[in-house]
Design a protein that fits this description.
With 351 residues, this protein is mainly beta. Helices cover 4% and strands 36% of the residues. It contains 1 helix and 29 strands.
């Protein structure tokens, strides 16, 4: 164990030295803007990340950051996931120092709060940074993750990531969250309003000042307590690290997975680490009256109990409803007797 300490401490040092402040940048100045009709975006210096509007199946627009050099244009952060913008909306760095979305009817949604910004930069690690006239960071997207974290990003205590509601169709806040608790425990769970248990996956690291780190140079994920690594999530990734794109995402099926994508001749994201190895163990993955099966421990298949149908076949987590509305119980002795049947479903998990 003692021989491993120099290596662990060096990882922490590299994380500090190669954080977001060491990235190259291209500045966007006060008054700069573009709208949904322009088909344009603000790029990072490497042009690997873009910040702009993406058209949703609903016809509305998501303002976000995505990997720009892959055909999937995978979104890693969004500013308006729960309030997509209508066509004709624009984003600008206002003269008042606010990064804001303005809709055609004049409604303004400010993205940053606090001190006024003088410039915006999208860094090569995917972090959108706002600085004042003295170049001090006054706001950055890495401090407000949605469902994904990137290399160089740290999630401190009392922060949460929330899944999307439905993959790349609906980016609004979904049912699942990854929480770095105040007590140091990192857990996956459904939103607090649905379940009261401690999580269907957790680290058990109950101590103070715990943070989740996605190391910039090694692409390994681990937990620290400011002085040492206390829990390792990723033990190995493909090298050289810079030959791949990296992300870790809380998915709409409730898992937290780390992915890589080759920059040259890549054809899709490959999982290198997943928190939940049996996806049907995720709470509520198939909703009320639904049950889950999986053939590969990667993808889930949701079915309804006999006599029930999916509320929304496109979103199985919404659960199932009875095909025939249940009858109210009667106190009358002449009431018709109802016969119930017990069904056995083997190798399944009931939500």
């Amino acid at each position: 164990m003692a021989s491993a300490m120099p290596f662990l401490l060096s990882l922490l040092l590299v994380h500090v030295l190669l954080g977001s402040h060491a990235q190259s940048q291209v500045n966007i100045s006060l008054g700069d803007s573009f709208d949904t009709n322009a088909n344009s975006s603000w790029l990072s210096p490497s042009e690997e990340f873009a910040f702009g509007f993406q058209l949703l199946p609903s016809g509305l627009f998501l303002l976000g950051i995505w990997f720009d050099k892959i055909p999937e244009k995978t979104v890693v952060w969004s500013a308006n996931r729960d309030a997509p913008a209508p066509a004709g909306s624009s984003v600008s760095l206002t003269v008042g120092g606010r990064l804001a979305i303005t809709s055609p009817n004049g409604t303004v949604m400010e993205i940053n709060n606090g001190d006024a910004a003088n410039s915006v930069s999208l860094l090569d690690n995917g972090n959108l940074v706002l600085r004042d006239s003295d170049l001090n960071v006054v706001w950055q997207s890495f401090d407000y993750p949605t469902d994904t974290i990137l290399r160089g990003q740290t999630v401190p205590s009392d922060k949460r990531l929330f899944s999307n509601a439905n993959g790349t169709v609906d980016y609004s806040t979904g049912n699942y969250m990854l929480e770095v608790g105040k007590d140091g425990n990192v857990a996956l769970n459904t939103k607090p309003s649905r379940w009261s248990d401690s999580g269907y996956w957790f680290t058990g690291t109950k101590q103070s000042n715990v943070s989740l780190v996605f190391n910039q140079s090694t692409a390994l994920m681990y937990l620290t307590n400011l002085t040492s690594i206390i829990y390792t999530l990723t033990t190995d990734v493909s090298t050289p690290v810079d030959s791949y794109y990296h992300r870790a995402t809380v998915e709409d099926t409730g898992n937290f997975q780390q992915y890589i994508y080759p920059k040259v001749n890549g054809s899709g994201w490959t999982s290198v680490r997943k928190a939940v190895t049996e996806p049907c163990k995720v709470n509520g993955v198939c909703g009320v009256y639904g049950y889950c099966t999986t053939s590969d421990n990667q993808n889930v298949s949701c079915s309804c109990l006999q006599g029930y149908s999916h509320v929304d076949p496109a979103v199985p987590s919404k659960g199932c409803y009875p095909d025939v509305p249940p009858q109210q119980c009667s106190q009358s002795p002449s009431a018709v007797t109802t016969t119930y049947t017990t069904l056995v479903y083997n190798d399944t998990d009931i939500s």
